[in-house]
Amino acid sequence: MSGLQCLASEKIWFDKHRYDEAEMHFYAGTNGPTTKEQQQQVKKNLQQAKGRQQKRQHRNSSSHARGEQEMTSRMKNMELENQTLQTLHKVETVMEDMRAALQMLASRVAVLEKSTAPAAAPRAEIVPVQAAPVKKVENDDDDDDDIDLFGSEEDDEEASRLKQERLDAYAAKKAKKPTIIAKSSILLDVKPWDDETDMVKLEECVRSVQVDGLLWGAAKLVPVGYGIKKLQISCVVEDDKVGTDILEEEITKFEDYIQSVDVAAFNKI
User: Fold this and answer.
1) pLDDT digits (tens, 9 = 90+) for 214-242
2) Looking at residue 258, what is its pLDDT?
């Protein structure tokens, strides 16, 4: 509904100011010429009437605007509710389709399971087991007389001799078998005091360490920084004879050349 239709439906006297002017002229003509004060009073009354009419029109227009706003908000709310209902209807439709598809799938799976079920295994036939024939043992009185229940000292000596021979043979065989020696490969980092240290002399000092079960390998110089290089040397040791503590102790005895010794890598062989 438009604003003009709303105003047309309401009972408002739009032409009242014309009737007021006509009434003023009528009374002015009947009463004769009016004075200036009376004319001013009439004008004032007309102005007040116009002001009251404008106020009524303003109130009517504001109430109409509020009505339109309320109507617009209601329409928007109804559109949102309609969209929500449509969305819910679509979701319910999708859910129903999914339920129907699941039911069809379940029925197909049941049919497949019934068709692929293995046939019942044939009943095994029970075959009677025949007992083995029992041999009849004949007891002869002559055999009982030949058994020696107590034994003799000669038998004991022979058994002990055989036992000792077997022990000696096992000990000899074990002595001939080579024993496995546990060994380890160690990589050492030998650090000098400064860049003026003679690294050739340092390597000679390290290799001068000779211990039973120790074998020195390859060596190389690795830069550390500020012109300083460390000696990285490898060796193979027997675990029962040489340990890392012994190596570090023997190498650090050369205090003029060596600052410290670190184990860079340790691997069992």
Assistant:
1) 999 999 999 998 889 999 999 999 988 88
2) 93
Q: Which helix (H) or strand (E) holds 1?
A: none
Taking CB atoms within 8 Å and a gap of at least 24, the contacts of 242-247 are 242/211, 242/212, 242/213, 242/214, 244/186, 246/211, 247/186, 247/188, 247/209, 247/211, 247/214
Cα atoms in the 13 Å half-sphere on the side-chain side of 208: 11
Look up residue 189 and give its DSSP letter.
Answer: E
Instruction: Average the pLDDT over 79-99 and give the result.
Output: 88
Instruction: With H, G, I as helix, E, B as strand and everything else as coil, classify residue 153.
Output: helix
Two structure tokens written together for 72: 């617009």
More confident residue, 130 or 114: 114
Retrieve residue 10's tokens. Answer: 């309401």
Q: Please report the pLDDT score of residue 85 as a whole number.
A: 87
Using alpha carbons, list the distances in angstroms from residue 226 to 64, 220, 230, 255, 263: 92, 18, 12, 21, 23
Segment (H or E) for 151: none
pTM of the model: 0.36
List the one residue out of 223, 133, 137, 241 whose CA is nearest residue 183.
241
How far is 175 from 169, CA to CA, in rounded Å?
10
Which residue's structure tokens are 């040397």? 233
